[in-house]
Amino acid sequence: MSMSMSLSVDEAGRALADPAAYADDARLHAALALLRREAPVHRVESPGYNPFWAITRHADVMEVERDNTLFVNAPRPLLTTAEFDAIRREQRATGRELRTLVHMDDPQHRVVRAIGADWFRPKAMRALEPRVRELARRYVDRMVEHGGACDFVTQIGVHYPLYVILSLLGLPESDFPRMLKLTQELFGGADEELRRGAGVQEQIATLMDFFAYFRALTESRRATPTDDLASAIANARVDGEPLSDVDTASYYVIIATAGHDTTSATIAGGLHALIDHPDQLDRLRDDPGLLPAAAEEMIRWVTPVKGFMRTATADTHIAGVPIAEGESVLLSYPSANRDEDVFADPFRFDVGRDPNRHLAFGFGVHFCLGAALARMETRAFFAELLPRLDSIELAGDPELSATTFVGGLKHLPIRYTLT
Ligand code: HEM
Fold first, then answer.
1. Is 316 helix (H, G, I), strand (E, B) or coil?
2. What are the backbone dihedrals phi and psi of residue 187, each rounded to the nearest 5 degrees, phi first?
3. What is the C-alpha separation between 16 and 28, in angstroms, rounded?
4. Ligand 1 pocket: which of 361, 376, 404 to mutate (most atoms <8 Å of CB)?
5. For all residues of the chain together, what is the average pLDDT?
6. Is 97 a residue whose pLDDT tops 50?
7. Residue whose CA is closest, atom 36 of ligand 1?
8. Whose CA is nearest to atom 2 of ligand 1?
C-alpha cells in the first residue's frame, strides 16, 4: 500500500478509467482506498473519456442506486470511451440503438425486466439445480482428465457458467464454442489478448454478430415455442405487442453475457483465494455448512463487475459534493466492497464472513437478475470440488484481465491432486 503515499487523487481517479489498472490488484486498491479516504466523490477527467464522478464509498453507491428517478441509467450506463459514447449517441439519434435492461429506466425497465424475472425465481432455480450439479460434476471430472494440472480459467472456469446459462436459455450445446468466443470478445473489450481487433468498430461488429444469432433464435421460438427462457423472451407481449427485433435480441445478449463472465470470474477468483489462504480452504473443507457464506465472500472478494454508471436528472449533491443535471457518476463496486466503514478487515478473505453486505450485485431496481443463479452455480462447483480435492497449488502466475467493466482472472495455472 506504499503506492498510495505517492499517488495524487487525480491519478487515483484516472486509474478508474484505465483498463490496465484493473489488471493490477495492488495498484487498483491503492487508488480506491485513497479516493475513499480523501475524495469519495471525485470528478475524473481522463484522456479519451467524457468526464465523470467516481463514487467510491459503499454508502454513497447505495444512495445513488436507491434513487432511480434522480439517477437514471440512460443515456450512459457504462463507462466507455468518448469515441464509443459518440457512436451510441448517433445510433440513438437514428433509432439503431441496441438496448438491454441496463440501458433502460422505468416505466419501460420494469415491464421488460418482468418478462424474464420468473426464470430466476426460487422455483425456476430449484428446477435448474440438478442440471447445474451435473455440470459442476462434469467440469470437476474434466479437471481430473487434465491430469493434475491446468489453466483453470481457460480450461474449466469459462466453460461451466456458459453451459449453465445456455441451459437456462434453452440453446443447443453445439452453439457453445461460438457463444464463448463472442462473449469473451465483447466483455474482454479492452484486453489485448481477448479482444477481436483493435478498435471500436470491432466491438460493434461483435455485438452485431450476437444480434444476428439471436434474431434467428427468435424466429425459431416464435414458430415453435418451447419451455425455456428463450421462448419466454421471443413470445413476450408488452401492451399487447411483441418486443421489437432489437429489444428481443438485447434481452438474450444481456442474459448470455451478464450470466457468463461474471460467474466464471467469481469461481476462478474464489479458487485462487482459497489457494492463497490455505487456512480458509481447510476451514471450508471441514465445515461444508459454510459454503453459502464462502460463495458470498468469493463474490465480494472478486467483485467481477467493476462499475455501472448513472446520470443525474437534476442538480443535486452526493455526500455534500454538488453534481449538476446531466453529469454522470461511476459506481465503483470493487471500492464499495472494500469499504472500511462497512466491512471488518475488508482485505481479509473470510469464508465465514457475516454480515457480508457487499454490493457486487448492485442494489435497487437494477439489482442483478441472476444473483440467485450465480450463488447456486458457485456453491455447486465448490460443493463438488472440495470433497474430492487432496491438494492444490499455483503452477505459475495468475493474470487478471484489463477491463473497466467485467473481468477477473484470465489465467490461473494450477497443479492439484483430485479423486
Ligand atoms: C445486472 C453483477 C451474474 C444477469 C447486474 C448488475 C451487477 C451484476 C452489478 C447491475 C446492478 C445495478 O445496476 O444495480 C453480477 C455478478 C454476477 C452476476 C457479480 C456473478 C457473480 C449474473 C447472472 C445472470 C445475470 C448469472 C444471469 C443471467 C443480470 C441481468 C442484469 C444484471 C439481466 C440487468 C438487471 C437490470 O438492469 O434490471 N449484475 N451479475 N447476472 N445481471 Fe448480473
1. strand
2. -90, -25
3. 8
4. 361
5. 92
6. yes
7. 366
8. 361
Type of residue numbered 311: T
Distance between Cα 362 and ligand 1 center (Å): 8
- Asked if 398 contacts 409 with a C-beta cutoff of 8 angstroms, the reply is yes
Ligand 1 within 6 A of 360 CB? yes
Q: Which grid coordinates belong to 80? A: 466507455
Q: How far apart are the CA of 374 and the centre of ligand 1, in A?
A: 9
Q: What is the DSSP code (8-state) at residue 101?
A: G
The complex's ipTM works out to 0.99
Which residue, judged by its Cα, is nearest atom 6 of ligand 1?
A: 368
Q: Residue 336 half-sphere exposure, CB side, CA atoms within 13 Å?
A: 31
β-partners of residue 150 are: 414
Q: What percent of the chain has pLDDT over 70?
A: 96
Taking Cα atoms as reference points, which of 243, 245, 255 lies closest to residue 166? 255
What's the pTM value of the predicted model, to 2 decimals? 0.94
The two counts, helices (H) then strands (E), for the chain are: 19, 14
Q: How far away, in angstroms, is 370 Cα from ligand 1 center?
A: 6
Name the CATH code of domain 9-418 (choices 2.30.42.10, 3.40.50.2300, 1.10.357.20, 1.10.630.10): 1.10.630.10
62 CB within 6 A, ligand 1: no
CB 3 less than 6 A from any atom of ligand 1: no
* Residue 193 pLDDT grade (very low, low, confident, very high; cuts 50, 70, 90): low
- 102 pocket-lining for ligand 1 (C-beta < 6 Å): yes
What secondary structure letter does DSSP report for 405?
S
Nearest atom of ligand 1 to the alpha carbon of 362: 14
Residue 198, pLDDT > 80, answer: no
SS3 46: coil
Nearest C-alpha to atom 21 of ligand 1 is from which residue? 263
What's the pLDDT tens digit per position in 64-96?
999 999 999 999 999 999 998 998 888 888 877
